[in-house]
C-alpha cells in the first residue's frame, strides 16, 4: 500500500524553482545543462534530510487518496502506463497515461495540449519525440506498433532536433538505418 | 436554556419526592433535556446534579464516543438505556498514514453484541477508524430490525460481502455511506441485493469502491427511492449512465459523479447538461474522476447553487479550474488537487468571496522529481479574495514566514489551520530561517484557532508561541519539529483546552512526556512516535496515572529501552484486553 522508498537522490533530474517563484517562460535549457545546474543548486533542507528516502507515512496523505490516484482505473495499483514527459525548454515535467490514448496521433495531440505554451514559444525549432525503452535505450517514437510502444516506453522526451546529435538518439538512428537496409 | 429558569417553577403537585432539591417531575425534565442535541451540552447538563444526571441519561438517544477504548460497551449501556444512534471512533489518526500496526484493535464486534442485547431498536451506527468484519456486518444486519443508517469512514476489515448483507436484510435502511475505507472489493453484486420492494434509501455513497456495479439494478434503485438526496457513485459509472440516473433523481442535493471522461456525442452532452440543470436542490458536487475540461461546462447550471465542490479526484489545470469557478459564486467549501497550481488558486480568490474552507491535496506527494503544485503565492492569493476563510488544509513544497503572516492578517478567523510543507524540516525558502514566525503569527492573530498542524523547520520558539497564545487550541499535529523537551512542555503547560496531541519524529523525551502528567486525563489522547521517549518514562507515567492507558508499540529490531510509538489515553474501562502482541500496555 504505502510506496516503498525510492531512494531518489535530490541531485537526480530535478528542476528546482528559483528563489523568486515560478517563471514559466524561463530561458530554455538543454538536457545536459540541467544535470550540471542541479549540482550547483542551493539546498532547501538541512543537510541530514537532503538525500531522504521515503519516510513512512509522510507526507500525511491518506491511503485511499494514494490508491485513487490519477490514471488508476483499478484503484489498487498505479497504472503501469504512466510515464514522465519532459520537454526541452519547458520548466516542468509532466506525467501522461499512455493507456488513455489510442495511438500516436492521439498522443501527439495530448502532448501538444500539455506543452502547448512551450511549443509555441519555441521560436520555430523542430522537436523530436523520443522515448526511453525497457532496455534503457533512447528510441525515436513512432516506429513500432502502438501496443508494443506503450509496453516498452519508460519515459518520454520532446527534444530539440538540433540537440539530437549530442545524445544517444544517434544510436536509434543507426538502428533505424540498419533495419532499412 | 438557563438552569435558573427551570428552577423558578416550583409548583409540581405530581412530585412525590419532597426530599429532592428540584421539584421538577422527571418526565418534564427529561422532555426539556431531550431538546439538547450536542453531546457537549448534554455532558455539561449531566454534571449539574444527580437528578439532572439521571434525567439526561434517560433522555439521551445519541451517544458519541471519541475513543472506543475510553469506555466499555457495558458501561455505556448501563448509563444510557435509550440509545438509538451511536458514533464511535477507534484507531489513532496516524493509522491513516500506516503508522499503526495491523490488527491494532478497535474491533466493533464486542460493541455490537452488547448493543444487540441492550439496544435492539438501534437505528444508526457511524464508525470512524474501526475494524469491522463481514461477520459483524451480517450480525448488524440481522440484529436490529429498525436499523436505518450505516456510515463507515476509514474503517477496514470488511468486504463487499458485508455490504451485501446490509442491503439484503435492512428493510428500513435510509443511509449507506461507505467512505474511504480499506475495503476488500470483491465485485459490485452487493448493490443488486437491495430488494425490489425497498424504497427508503436517502443516502447512498459507494464512491470508494472500484468494482463495476450492476447499472440496471442501480438505476431501478435510484428510480424507486424518491427520497434520495445524496448519491455518490464510483468511478465505474459512466457519464451516459449518470445522465440516466439524474433524469430520475432531480431532487438530489449531493451528487458524486462517476468517471467524467468518456467520449460523448453532442446529443449525449446536451442531455447530460439538461439533466444536471434540472437538479435545482444540488448544493454539493464531487467525484469527477478523470474530468475532461471540455465536459465541465455541463456543470455550469449546477454550479450557481453549489456550496461544496470536491475536485480532489479531478486533476484539473489552472485554466480549467478558473473557467469552472467563474460559475461558482456561492462556494463555501472547495477541495482541489495541486495540479491547479497558484494560478488556479488566484481564480479561487477572484471568484469565491464566500469561501470558508479550502483543501489543496498533492497529486504526486511522493514523487520528488516533479516539482509543480502550489506555493505560498496561491495561498496568499486566496486569502486576499476570501476573508471568511476559516478552514484550510494546504500541501505545498515551499512557504515563507512573510506569506503566512499576510494570510492570517487577511483571514483572522481561522479555526483550522493545517499547513503541510512536504519536505520535512524545510525552512523559509527565501530567508532560510525556521518557520517559527509563521506559526507565531497564526496563533497570535487567530484567537479562535481550534486545530493546528505545523510543518517546516521549527524550533522550540514555535511551541512557546503555541503555548502562550493558542488558548482555544484543541488538536495539535506536529512532525519533524522542535529542538528540545522545552517545546512540548510549553504546549502542555499553556494550551488549556488541548484534547488531542499527535507528535512524530520530534526530539521530545521523557521530561516532555511527563510534563503533561496532570493534563492527560483532561485530554482524549496523546500519540508520540519516533521521539526520544523511553520505556522507563512510559512506565513512570503509567504508574503515576492509573486512569490512563499507556500503550507502547515496539518496532522490530529497535532498542529495548526505546518506546518507539506511544499512545496514551484516558479510560474508565481500564487497560484493554484485546491488544495484539505488538502493543504493550504498561
TrEMBL record, chain A:
SUPFAM superfamilies: CAD & PB1 domains (SSF54277). Gene3D superfamilies: Phosphatidylinositol 3-kinase Catalytic Subunit, Chain A, domain 1. Residues 14-56 are annotated as: Disordered. The keyword Oxidoreductase does not apply. One of its GO terms (cellular component) is nucleus. Keywords: Auxin signaling pathway, Nucleus, Repressor, Transcription, Transcription regulation. InterPro entries: AUX/IAA_dom, AUX_IAA, PB1-like. Its main location: nucleus. It is found in: Nucleus. One of its GO terms (biological process) is auxin-activated signaling pathway. Residues 80-163 form the PB1 domain. It holds the Pfam family AUX_IAA. The keyword Transcription regulation applies. PANTHER family: AUXIN-RESPONSIVE PROTEIN IAA17, AUXIN-RESPONSIVE PROTEIN IAA5. Aux/IAA proteins are short-lived transcriptional factors that function as repressors of early auxin response genes at low auxin concentrations. Belongs to the Aux/IAA family. Homodimers and heterodimers. This is Auxin-responsive protein. It comes from Gossypium davidsonii (Davidson's cotton). The lineage of its organism: Eukaryota, Viridiplantae, Streptophyta, Embryophyta, Tracheophyta.
UniProtKB/TrEMBL annotation, chain B:
GO terms for biological process: auxin-activated signaling pathway; pollen maturation; SCF-dependent proteasomal ubiquitin-dependent protein catabolic process. SUPFAM superfamilies: F-box domain (SSF81383), RNI-like (SSF52047). Residues 24-65 form the F-box domain. Residues 1-23 are annotated as: Disordered. This is F-box domain-containing protein. The lineage of its organism: Eukaryota, Viridiplantae, Streptophyta, Embryophyta, Tracheophyta. The keyword Nucleus applies. InterPro entries: COI1_F-box, F-box-like_dom_sf, F-box_dom, Leu-rich_rpt, Leu-rich_rpt_Cys-con_subtyp, LRR_dom_sf, Transp_inhibit. It holds the Pfam family Transp_inhibit. Pathway: Protein modification; protein ubiquitination. It comes from Gossypium davidsonii.
